[in-house]
Amino acid sequence: MAGLPKVVLLSITEEALAGLIEEAVKKAVTNAVGKGQPQTPTQLLTREQLANHFQCSTRHISKLVDRGMPFHGHGRQKRFRLQEAEGWMRSKERQ
Fold it and tell me: Percent of the chain scored above 70 by pLDDT?
């Protein structure tokens, strides 16, 4: 029948399965880190990455930039250092 998924049965050792799972988890973590959090404090983040970190919209990040949040670059190519952005946010909370 067309449209049904093909089923394949495999025989695999417990050790081999554990190795495959470990490799998949490492790959998933590496991909998640690259998309979300910076790997070093000085790494520049995109507006999308910063919004993901603060769990807000990219539009909100743009409004914070308009209010004085520090950034690097110009025009639509703005980049942010996480430590600078967090420090700026903390300073605004105290005011």
Answer: 83
